[in-house]
Design goal:
Oligomer: single chain
Distance between the termini: 53 Å
Largest sheet: 8 strands, parallel, barrel
Strand order of the largest sheet: 2-3-4-7-8-9-10-13
Number of strands: 21
CATH topology of the largest domain: TIM Barrel
Helix content: 10-25%
Number of domains: 2
CATH architecture of the largest domain: Alpha-Beta Barrel
Radius of gyration: 25 Å
Strand content: 15-25%
CATH class of the largest domain: Alpha Beta
Shape: globular
Number of helices: 13
């Protein structure tokens, strides 16, 4: 936790920065997130009638309707887009480095863990690009993509522009003689033998034209290959400072001449990412603006453009908990916090620290949670804990994200048409991170009707109703019902979390079962 202990050691700096007049800035003051106006959310096309649906006169919308089918909640593990457990194959210091074991085996052991659905990588910039105009991916990037295809798992990633845990500076070598780096003020406390304490920490002048041009090209090259690629789950935005988290703690200030230049630079860099990543969700860290580089506006703009948010810990700042747990319902939340290895695992009041972590990720209402052990990445460390205490990981796997199903299905007849009302529920801990589309269709394709419900619904409590009217003369029995998720214009199939049998395509055959 020392790497992000901002408020413990630097409260006076944080308070002082909050008192600075920000009239010329886009600074977004702290606010409660519940019911805050972030806009109406993603556009809903072909919006279904979502009620209310009175049965009796004088508002006889669905005359003589009756419940004809019901589903019950399932505990099965789902592999839907927008949710899941993410295994890390690389973090701050790279991929696993296990003596006597090949890199391919170490990564495969992580990727094939049966209780994870997604994969995460965090390479340095110079590990994906060595020369202008061309990407040069490091070996573990290529290995991971091959294994992801083999095991049918999706990848999320962040490119770190700077990294305090490596001896070199962040920019690729071809840029180093073109852009100025500025030494940061202060020292990194800790072990005198660690890279963090021995390294001379510098930050680039991100606003330098050569840097901006290279950053633009990096996004263009990556997006050309990966934007909308079905293998990509999401991409973290490239923020200021260490690990791309939006800070250079524990050092004071930043490399820019003033705060306004810092803020405008990173807003421009976010705009570059928004320009190229039009199909793949971008994920911005909820890091408080310790270094005064515009984090509050970056976060606000991320949400207003219907992208997602994340935290790199859950046991420091209360504002990050406020932001993530009270986010707009159509926004996914990613929770990254490393598990303790068995040799560091403490237990208090009968609850070990890993179980405590998982319990708080559930409290947060996360869509994703990381499976990793900080700088000790290995499948063995994860399995050692799982074999000792499988219940916490099994529980979060069966609850994380959204888990939708039609709990009630009503049938009615009006003007020669049969109609169905679906009472959608969500048994997960998070709302739907986008727009849900409901479809009713026949196996031969002669019937295919449906539409979308409001963004973020159904939420984690209550029943959300929507009507689908069938073509005249078509009987509902034997038709299929399926659910899809729309995020940034892309459609993803959704497996429903019901005990009732579903078909190979994930659809539910409609038939009376009451």
């Amino acid at each position: 936790m020392d790497r992000r202990s901002f408020l413990k050691t630097s409260g006076s700096i944080a308070v002082a920065s909050a008192l600075v007049t920000r009239g010329a800035y886009g600074f977004v003051p702290a606010h409660n997130w519940e019911k805050y106006d972030f806009g109406s959310g993603p556009v809903v096309t072909n919006r279904l009638n979502q009620g209310p649906f009175p049965i009796y006169a004088p508002e006889e919308i669905v005359p003589d309707s009756e419940v004809v089918m019901a589903t019950t909640a399932s505990k099965k593990i789902l592999k839907n887009f927008g949710m899941g457990l993410i295994v890390y194959v690389s973090g701050d210091i790279g991929p696993p480095n296990i003596p006597g074991e090949s890199l391919e085996k170490s990564i495969e052991d992580l990727v094939k863990l049966p209780f994870v659905q997604k994969i995460y990588m965090r390479p340095d910039w110079r590990q994906v690009q060595n020369q202008a105009g061309k990407l040069d991916f490091i070996d573990y990037w290529k290995i991971t993509f091959d294994l992801a295809r083999h095991y049918n798992k999706q990848i999320a990633f962040r490119i770190m522009l700077e990294n305090p845990d490596v001896p070199y500076l962040g920019a690729p070598e071809y840029l180093m003689d073109k852009i100025p780096y500025v030494k940061l003020k202060g020292e990194w406390p800790g072990s005198p033998n660690s890279i963090r304490t021995t390294k001379e920490h510098k930050m680039p002048r991100y606003d330098h034209p050569e840097y901006q041009e290279a950053f633009y090209e990096l996004n263009a090259l990556l997006a050309d290959e990966l934007n909308g690629n079905p293998m990509i789950e999401y991409m973290d935005t490239f923020m200021y400072g260490f690990w791309g988290e939006g800070h250079s703690w524990p050092f004071e200030g930043h490399p820019f001449p003033d705060d306004l230049t810092a803020e405008q630079t990173f807003l421009k860099m976010l705009d570059v990412q928004l320009k190229f990543w039009t199909k793949t969700p971008l994920v911005t860290n909820t890091q408080p603006d310790f270094s005064r580089v515009g984090n509050s506006e970056l976060l606000d703009k991320t949400i207003r453009t219907h992208n997602w948010i994340r935290t790199d810990t859950i046991f420091i700042e209360n504002m990050q908990i406020e932001s993530l747990s009270n986010r707009p319902p159509w926004i996914a939340a990613i929770s990254e916090i490393g598990l303790r290895t068995l040799d560091r695992l403490e237990t208090h009041d009968g609850v070990d620290m890993n179980a405590n972590i998982i319990s708080h990720v559930l409290d947060l209402g996360a869509n994703y949670w990381s499976l990793w052990n900080w700088h000790n990445i290995s499948a063995k460390n994860i399995l050692d804990y799982y074999e000792r205490n499988p219940e916490p990981i099994d529980e979060i796997n069966r609850r994380i994200g959204y888990r939708v199903r039609p709990s009630w299905i009503w049938k009615f007849t009006k003007d020669g048409h049969q109609g169905l009302i679906f009472g959608m529920v969500n048994d997960g801990i998070a709302a739907v991170p986008g727009v849900l589309r409901l479809n009713v269709f026949s196996e031969d394709g002669s019937v295919n009707v449906g539409g979308s419900i409001d963004a973020g619904y159904p939420k984690q409590t209550g029943v959300f109703q929507a009507m689908i009217l069938l073509p005249k003369g078509v009987d509902w029995k034997g038709l299929h019902f399926k659910v899809e998720l729309e995020v940034k214009g892309q459609m993803y199939p959704v497996e429903m979390a019901c005990q009732q049998k579903t078909n190979a395509d994930g659809s539910l055959t409609l038939q009376p079962n009451l």
